[in-house]
Design goal:
single chain; 184 residues; mainly alpha; 5 helices; elongated
Amino acid sequence: MRRLVSLADAFSDISGRAIAWLTLLMVVVTFLVVVLRYLFDLGWIWLQESVTWMHAAVLMLGAAYTLRHEEHVRVDVFYRNRDVRGRAWVDIFGSLCFLLPMCIFLLWSSLDYVSASWQLRETSQEAGGLPYPLVPLMKTLIPIAALLLIMQGLADLARNIVMLLGRPLAPRASAGSASRGDAL
């Protein structure tokens, strides 16, 4: 179990750090769009759309990394005054009742949507927008994001259950976990 949790954590860390580089590319492309438009009176729809799609990729593929490091927004009313065991119970309840069902629903409901996009060889609705296969490829990130969140959610669930049983696994690596009780 320790090995599986460590592998899930490591995968979330690696994928999160890798996708973070996409934010730098977004800044560069946005700067390029502005310079081309206002200095040279040039512009391409596909270049502008690429920034939106990169932002979507960062959001979807960075979600598991954010969960791994306990940086998701949460309502702290049930969490703030709890000890470590109480927080583990809240995390277990949240994972079982909210996170995992939502991710399973997202995965299940997105499969037909993504499949249709591939079958139709979908392109951007804008003239001069992103070509095939970029649009279906970007839509494929939806079920991938759900799978990554399920993987990290199960790792966190296992970590909390094992901790309650008195055999803690490696703690989460989180810069914000020490002050987490003060978040909201």
